[in-house]
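ERR on first pass: missing label on line 2. Operator R.T. fixed the label and resubmitted. Corrected input:
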Amino acid sequence: MTTRLRVGVIGLGAMGAPMARRFHAAGWLHAVWNRTPAKAAALVGELAGEPGVIHAESPAELARTCQLVLTSVSADADLQAVVEAMVPGCHADLTVVDTSTVAVDTARRMAARLAEHGTGFLDAPVSGGVEGARRGSLVMMVGGAAEVLERVRPALAALATDIRRLGEVGAGQAAKAVNQVMAAGINEAVTEALALGEAAGLPLDELIDLLGGGAAGNWFLDHRGPTMVRGEYAPGFRLALHHKDLVLCQQLWRQLSGAESPLVATTLGHYETLMTQGRGDEDISALYRLKCSRRNGSQK
Amino acid sequence: MTTRLRVGVIGLGAMGAPMARRFHAAGWLHAVWNRTPAKAAALVGELAGEPGVIHAESPAELARTCQLVLTSVSADADLQAVVEAMVPGCHADLTVVDTSTVAVDTARRMAARLAEHGTGFLDAPVSGGVEGARRGSLVMMVGGAAEVLERVRPALAALATDIRRLGEVGAGQAAKAVNQVMAAGINEAVTEALALGEAAGLPLDELIDLLGGGAAGNWFLDHRGPTMVRGEYAPGFRLALHHKDLVLCQQLWRQLSGAESPLVATTLGHYETLMTQGRGDEDISALYRLKCSRRNGSQK
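pass 2 clean. output:
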């Protein structure tokens, strides 16, 4: 029988809260902490009962009482702040699993900082979005020591159907970067092509259905094609977040090759135009607006 | 019971020959013609027996004796030459179905030329490649009058599992252009992203498997990812042919919008570099060579 680890969650946003709920439903959740305390208090209230969930006073207290701390924050600086705040409570029986999307270098620095206290670290960015977090069907891209992963894998199985180790610390973030670059290029491909179809006066729903079954078929066309051509851009995946991730991808490209990725640079430029127009909270498929407006001068 | 149309096939290349065989197996094939007569003679020999297949002396003779002529040629000029050569044999009981990838304008001109003789025309470019032609599992994008399509649909069903009418003459070619633009963009996306993964030292087979199940998942990654990272570039879809199609896509963009597609221009440039290196007969996934060499200066 698996001994249950005591699990803490830091960062109860759009992804962190449903992951905490999944841990609780599976009997693993011990404590939570959030920068805005009201969010943590609300979740603790929601999950009241036997066993209850502790609202930790600080990241250090949470670290002290847990064996696995999962972090889900927005940006590199947030992760660094949270890890520093955990340090006074860190111990050798603790593993920190960061599901945020941050730079490869940041992941490596966090691992080194925690190792000073004997605490293990895995970078474990996820894909599958809020829906995947709710259903426990995330894909988790893991970097770190294999034995550290095996120690916490039974708990992570409450969140993800595919937990894949891709190498040492940083490999998870590198894999996530590959995913985000591919997603950017596919967004460019699908919106450019459908804008051509729109300009040619083709029946776009028919066309999307038709192309989906062929060699140009892809998840994004199937799931975002029908909404984008109706002018619906509710996220999904927020454009400003993808922009943030692509900045990290571009940094990684520069580090590895000394040059930028032209494809990533193009998408960054397009997203910046849309963010200037106040579209940062829309789905990334709002790129279709730009592709159509380029042709007809209007804002579709 | 469906009365069988007498079907002729012009152009017995990589796509035309297997389509002719499918018509024959279904009992529709009456005659064939090919610019290089030896190819037609060989196919007639292969299909000898009861009922035999006629090796027509000319496109005009083939047109005279058939009710459906399917054309499968390489380029716009070839199609124009074949249609002109058919004209003396054209009649009101004939429909010409062109499965080649040509310009929207060329399709419209062919339709008008044939209409002078009461002959129907459908532009019906296909996707699914040689494998799809062999299996009769092509996707056919059709432009033309609905009643003309319904007349020949029972015969076309021997070739394609999805026969989709997208509008009047030219709509099939416009839809094919959308498909080719999307395929170009996806090729750019997948090769760029995997080159980043390669540079980061990630295990590429694992990564391809992982990404295929997520929001960046696509047919090209699943089918060409594993081969490209092994340096295998057997077609598949010949790079020089995709280049030819993308030139047509760019012309269509210019006609419809007065501007070029930046995405298509980028891919055309990449393909031209590869063609200069003698890679035109490789699969389009050979773009991965360029993405990797950009980083490390070597030819992978």
